[in-house]
Amino acid sequence: MIVADSSEVLVIQDLTAAVDGVPILKGVNLAIKAGEIHAIMGPNGSGKSTLSKVLAGHPDYEVTGGTVQYLGQDLFALEPAERARAGVFLAFQYPIEVPGVSNADFLRLSYNARQKHRGLPELDLLDFDDLLQQKLPIVEMNPAFLSRSVNEGFSGGEKKRNEILQMAILEPTLAILDETDSGLDIDALRVVSHGVNQLATPHNCCLLITHYQRLLQYIIPDFIHVMAEGKISLTGDRTLAEELESKGYDWLKDGDG
Amino acid sequence: MITLASLRQLGQEHLGYLTPPTRQREGWQYLRMPELLPTATTTQGREIATSSAPWQSFAIPGAYQGRWFQGRWQPPVGPEPEDGELWFGSLGDRPPGDPLVQRLVGLVSQHPATRDYFGYSNQAALEELAILYVPQNRAIAQPIQILSYAAAQPEGACMVVHPRCLVVLESGSQATLLERWLSEDGGALWHNGVTEIFLGPGARLDHVMVQQQGSSTLHLQTTALIQEGHSQYQGYALALGGHTSRQTLHVQQHGSATETVLSGLIYGDGDQHHELYSCVHLEHPHSTSRQLQKVILDGHAHGVFWGKIQVGQKAQETNAGQLSRTLLRSPKARVDTQPQLEILADNVKCSHGATVSQLDADELFYLLSRGIDPETATRLLSYGFAAEVIRQIPIAAVRQSLEAWLMQHTASTVPSGS
Ligand SMILES: Nc1ncnc2c1ncn2[C@@H]1O[C@H](COP(=O)(O)OP(=O)(O)OP(=O)(O)O)[C@@H](O)[C@H]1O
Ligand SMILES: [Mg+2]
Predict the structure, then answer these.
(1) Residue B111 DSSP code
(2) Is it the case that residue A225 has pLDDT exceeding 60?
(3) What pLDDT does B418 receive?
(4) For labelling alongside B338, which of A107, A120, A147, B384 has CA 20 to 30 A away?
């Protein structure tokens, strides 16, 4: 929702980034205020996931120029774990399997790291279990998944639910969801979208990366951006999604290629 | 009549013809032998009371526990199993002429793996023989623990201990055995242990071996196993402590439909050197052998895994699998893995694999991206790597203590919130 006089959570200016010396992001500009939901669409390989990884601090991506302010501070001054504790959350396009580490332990360690950062009490096993029981219904997840290793052997849809469960537990200020809708069946899409909507407040914001207008019928974005060749090439309101769905991306090219 | 004295003498005679293996000997290229062996030894440890050893911290609730203290056997303590026919103690408990005693001593040194320099060194010093004897068709529910503890003198000659155990499970019986080897950090110690195991037809043994010796210990341990048909052996070998350690696990299958499962974990840090030498010999049809070895190395540590599987001509329709996986946590750590498959039968399913990797950068980033600090994240991943082995251990108290041990050793700082 667009909230009057709300503060800026994320301000990206002229951001450029490279991987192995190859420029991928070529001058991204984007500002997100508290309460807002932004969607990024765009062709495969245009740099959407790269943007999300750069924001989360993945070491493979080198920031070569530009600035990112998060809550008025230089985001790049923070290590990846510090960004997370400060409220940046990335739901991965391809969530990673971590064999041998139980999902419950993983969630509790993450939660306690965030609590500690906020100066709030850390939870022991029992209290954390109570918290989990409250959060599980948000993504309609079977408790059996808690004792399994993180994402190991989870189906594609189960991994995505697990990402949203983490989001529900960490209550991020900036949530970046990278194609969380891909690979979900209709029911799961509804569950996951409903979860994301439940977590939205006037104080946090969300950046959704998606290929499908379908998701945007469940989660209503305030703005839609199109990313092409490492830049935001167009910004519009939610009606842009339908237009893109029917016309594709070709019409956006200025025809000089 | 065979007695301890006659066995000892036999050991001394054999030893007279043997010298320690040099690096030229197959399988010994990574140990500096014989320089590694102490030139002067003593069986005398530091003067401490039996009660001052850390037995309590390693006690397993409900377990029946025998002890090697300063190289000498102590009668078992803890709740005795209700089954009066179980014999857990030492050979000296019964008269030498007892038919069972004669049968058991007749088994000593029958396994080829015990007939080398170290096996005979042990036999030549044989003062006591620890016995675990389970009669036919008995299932012993409570774990049997054999704890070995030694505290060497801080200075002077290297202390040497030669604990020897004989484990016999008669046909159809079942037991869980835990051997744990401990010593003080201080003085130099050479542990030269031998455990011989005989599993009768259809018997089942779960066998957990935990080496947590002190930092100045040279640990050499041979586990020699003979399995009759339809028997099952599940061994868990964990090498965590000591300065230099080498464990030999040698399994001979003497019947069909026999199952051998070996799980191992080596954890090395600093300048530790750990070796696991295993050999599983399948000679009969319809048998299986599965092996999973995990190796985690940090600092300058060196790990060696040498796993031999021999499938004889008559071992048709057998199934043998081996996998070793190494995690190198430091660029200075080193591993040598050598699977050796010798297959003579033609109808055999055999697989083996070895991987060596560092901490996975994407797994690490995933944990960091959830706010977990780098130290804790590396610790969790190392722990996760070992978990596959640890989680199978059938004794909860051992599992928990190993989990705690790993959590402590795979990171230098204690994480928040746990
Ligand atoms: N770690 C990496 N190593 C090498 N190349 C990379 C890496 N990450 C991204 N790239 C390259 O950068 C470009 C942008 O990739 P990115 O994953 O950001 O695209 P995307 O917009 O998310 O695409 P999709 O819609 O398919 O998910 C691609 O050409 C990709 O191959
Ligand atoms: Mg992508």
Answers:
(1) S
(2) yes
(3) 33
(4) B384
| Cα–Cα distance, A186 to B98 (Å, whole number) | 76
Report whether B294 contacts B388 (CB < 8 A): yes
Please give the order of strands across the beta sheet that includes B144-150. Answer: B72-77, B64-69, B144-150, B174-183, B204-212, B232-239, B259-268, B288-297, B318-328, B348-357
Tell me how close the Cα of A237 comes to any Cα of chain B, in angstroms.
30
Q: Between chains, do A84 and B370 touch, taking CB under 8 Å as contact?
A: yes
Q: Is this complex scored with an ipTM above 0.90?
A: yes
- Here the tokens at position A155 are 């189906």
DSSP collapsed to 3 states, chain A = CCCCCCCEEEEEEEEEEEECCEEEEEEEEEEEECCCEEEEECCCCCCHHHHHHHHHCCCCEEEEEEEEEECCEEHHHCCHHHHHHCCEEEECCCCCCEEEEEHHHHHHHHHHHHHHHHCCCCCCHHHHHHHHHHHHHHHCCCCHHHHCEECCCCCHHHHHHHHHHHHHHHCCCEEEEECCCCCCCHHHHHHHHHHHHHHCCCCCEEEEECCCCCHHHHCCCCEEEEEECCEEEEEECCHHHHHHHHHCCHHHCCCCC
B381 with A98: Cβ contact below 8 A? yes
Pick from B142, B173, B200: which is nearest to B394 by CA?
Answer: B142
Q: What is the pLDDT of residues A117-171, one digit of tens each?
A: 999 999 998 999 999 999 999 888 888 999 899 999 999 889 999 999 999 999 9
- Is A49 touching ligand 1 by the criterion CB < 6 Å? yes
Look up residue B145 and give its amino acid: Q
Nearest to B245 by CA among B300, B193, B298, B196: B193
Q: Please count the other Cβ atoms lying within 10 Å of the Cβ belonging to residue B80.
A: 12
Contact B154, B183 (CB under 8 A): no
Name residue B220's beta-bridge partners: B192, B246
Return the ∠ at Cα A92 (arms to A23 and A176), rounded to 5°: 80
| Any atom of ligand 1 within 6 Å of the Cβ of A231 | no
Task: Say what the pLDDT of residue A254 is.
Answer: 59
Round to whole Å and give the CA distance between B70 and B160: 9
Please state, as a whole number, how many other Cβ atoms lie within 10 Å of the Cβ of residue B155.
Answer: 8
Of A15, A16, A50, A180, the residue with max ligand 1 atoms within 8 A of its CB, to mutate for a pocket test, comes to A50
Q: Per-residue pLDDT tens for B386-414? A: 999 999 999 999 999 998 898 888 764 33
CA distances from B122 to A68, B23, B192 (A): 69, 21, 6
Using CA atoms, how far apart are residues B220 and B119, in angstroms rounded to an integer?
10
Q: Give me the count of residues in chain A.
A: 257
Identity (one letter) of the amino acid at B87?
Answer: W
- Tens of pLDDT along A82-127? 999 999 999 999 999 999 899 999 999 999 999 999 999 999 989 9
What spacing in Å lies between the alpha carbon of A46 and ligand 1's midpoint? 7
Identify the structural domains of chain A with CATH numbers, from first to last: 8-255 (3.40.50.300)
Other CB atoms within 10 A of residue B370 CB: 25
pLDDT tier for residue A222 given thresholds of 50, 70 and 90? very high
